[in-house]
Design goal:
The chain has 138 residues and is mostly helical. The protein contains five helices and two strands, in the order H-E-E-H-H-H-H. It has one domain. It is elongated. It starts with 7 loop residues before the first helix and ends in a 6-residue tail after the last helix.
Amino acid sequence: MTDTPRTAGSRRRDRALAVAGAVAAAVVVWAVGDPLLGNDLIVEQPDREPMDLGFAAFAIFSLVSSLLGWALLAVLEKTTSRAALIWTVVALIVLVLSFLPLTGVEATGGSKAVLAVAHLAVGGVLIPAFWRTRKENR
């Protein structure tokens, strides 16, 4: 089965849906982890006040991260013929690095698990969706 070429408009629409899906995935993880399972998503860092990560934090972080990923992909598509490959490698590296802050904060094991799953959920939506919407260079 061959894919039909995507137009710029259909790529934008599909990427916008991917961003919405990534935000929805993060919020679902929060909803299951915090109110449903009762993990108080409070993280403490040295010399800082404890932060309670609620709905807004999950929604905003996933939205901003997704939009930055989209922006990087768009720039790469304008500057290199290997945009999808470069973007995917960068996205996977960023996903792996996103777990590092979890090692430097004080939080319950359940809270850290919810945060880790949220990172995986956002990456699990965006990476394949943005790969699927890559600009074909012929």
